[in-house]
Amino acid sequence: MNIKKGLFFFVFTSFLLAATTTQAATNDNRYLVKSTSSFWKKSLIVRNVFEGGFTADLSDWQLRMTKIFGVEVAPVKKLNILAVTPVPTPKTPVKSKTPAGPVAWGVGYTYGNDLDEELPTGGKDVVVAILDTGVNRNHPDLKNRISDCADFSAGAGFVNGKCDDKNDHGTHMAGIVAADGGAKGLGIYGVAPESKLAIYKVCDTDGTCFSDDVASAIRYAADQKVNIILISIGSDTESTLINNAVVYAVGKGALVIAAGGNDGPDSDGIDYPAAQSEVISVGALDAKEDVPEWSSRGNNENSEAYLREPGDLELIAPGVNIESTGKDGDYVTLSGTSMAAAHVAGLAAKEWQKDADNPADATRDLLHKFTQDILPLGDDEDSGWGVPTL
Predict the structure, then answer these.
(1) Is 206 a catalytic residue?
(2) Do the beta carbons of residue 248 and residue 222 sit within 8 Å?
(3) Global pTM?
(4) 80-388 in CATH: which number?
């Protein structure tokens, strides 16, 4: 009897595994399996493990089997990168082999337009984790800045040492934060060119990202003791996996910064995870100090002023026609709240309060002190508390 039962489970498990490898890989069927059973973990190819369950790519047949055996499953939510491609003009081409200058307008603005002949500095010994589409590790302006690299979006899950960018978005974020001009200083500079970057690829080439991969990367970054986590991706609906991961990371001492979204102009439009109160949510600003129509608005006017509540917009930063590093070793101009969030992450790295009892909280407070209000005045849904500059 035991032999027959063992044979049954062996055959059943083999069918489940075969279905995973031959069918689920080609389908968009990522699920959270709400079970801690070792049998189901062995029967399905586990992608990410969380409290109370794990995620896996399930075929239709496997999904039916979980329902037959009463195993609760839930679809895994998706997020997207938060950038819009600007209309190119002779002055702002989308791509170029050389930058228009060593300091793009957004970085200069963040420095209070007070660089003159000087170049950006700062960020030494600070690690910024960028969860995005990866990076070009060989870009001359970035190759000395990268301290860690991993791919959470690969077909088989976590792959250490791999984080190639085939989209541009992740490399663009990296440059805004920490580009160092390259060995000859002929490239472009980020806000904190002495900081280090931990690049965790969580998005596919098309810019879509599964929330379980993002949540795993957040937890991994926190366990690696990074100082700042930059998430320039978002969704209109919240993910419990990501929410819990953010709380975990903040508890580990990380400062989490996220793009507010490109869903404006309606109020209460901040994307998740930026909508979480534990996260610094960032909207976009253009060179004329106007908030673009597409930048998501917060719920600030329905909450207590200057008290970060869920759904509020906290800060704004340069996010329109931002030139930075590109995946082909070139320079790319993009717009979006992604770019705005990267400027704030760079400023946080530059001004990291390492000697404080809680460096993350102290740095967040300092960013507030650096913040300049813009119209409309006060803590408003368009511009939050304002724009932080030196």
Answers:
(1) no
(2) yes
(3) 0.93
(4) 3.40.50.200
